[in-house]
Amino acid sequence: MVAHDPTRHVVATTIDHRGAEFAIEEVRQAGFARQIEIKIEDVAQPLPYPDGSFDFVYARLVLHYLPKHALQESLNELRRILKTDGKIFIVVRSIDCPEAHDKSAIVDADTGLTTYPSGGKWHSRFFHSRESIASYLVSAKFSIQHMDSYEEQLCIDFQRTTLSQHIDCLIEVLAIAC
């Protein structure tokens, strides 16, 4: 994207300081430091941008960490910072993921979060159905343009060197801000 348009400015965000450091170095090495800005931001908090600031939001494997209420607020906030007819592309974990069906998993109906053991630790995710993520997006005033489900073996590190022990089921959605 930035390689083909030197006027394009990208703001890339993460909540993880190590991930940000890694991304800054990768961007610098690729020669795009003037076009790509890396920031530490929490999508569950109000974002520091004026209304209609962005043409496109890409949220891959971020929103499934949020409980129901925070997810709706975050999607409303992402809608706010998008221009009318701006696009959002999201990827969330699906209810078809193995962890969602772990016998030790605990589902909290109030938050929508499933807490499960993995790698000696407990993790929480909001595993979505196609209907659930679509409902949240429509409620935030997005029009769904494309939705698909697929499987992918994810990496467990920012450097993308260590593969997960299993295949994850994911849902991707492209939506337009109404």
Q: Could you please describe the fold and organization of this structure?
A:
This protein has helices at residues 17-30, 68-81, 130-139; strands spanning 10-14, 36-40, 54-60, 82-93, 106-107, 114-118, 121-125, 142-152, 168-177. The chain is α/β, with parallel strands linked by helices and 178 residues long. The model has no long low-confidence stretch (mean pLDDT 93).
Topology overview:
Elements: E1 10-14, H1 17-30, E2 36-40, E3 54-60, H2 68-81, E4 82-93, E5 106-107, E6 114-118, E7 121-125, H3 130-139, E8 142-152, E9 168-177
Parallel strand pairs: 1-2, 3-4
Antiparallel strand pairs: 4-9, 5-6, 6-7, 8-9
Please give the CATH architecture of the largest domain. 3-Layer(aba) Sandwich
Number of strands: 9
Distance, first to last CA: 24 Å
| Helix-strand makeup class | alpha/beta
According to CATH, what is the topology of the largest domain?
A: Rossmann fold
Helix segment tally: 3
CATH superfamily of the largest domain: Vaccinia Virus protein VP39
Count of separate structural domains: 2
Low-confidence stretches: none
Which descriptors apply to this entry?
3-stranded antiparallel sheet, 178 residues, 9 strands, Rossmann fold, 3 helices, 2 domains, alpha/beta, 4-stranded mixed sheet
Care to give the gist of this entry?
The chain is of the alpha/beta class and 178 residues long. The chain folds into 2 domains: 7-41, no CATH class; 52-177, Vaccinia Virus protein VP39 (Rossmann fold, 3-Layer(aba) Sandwich), CATH 3.40.50.
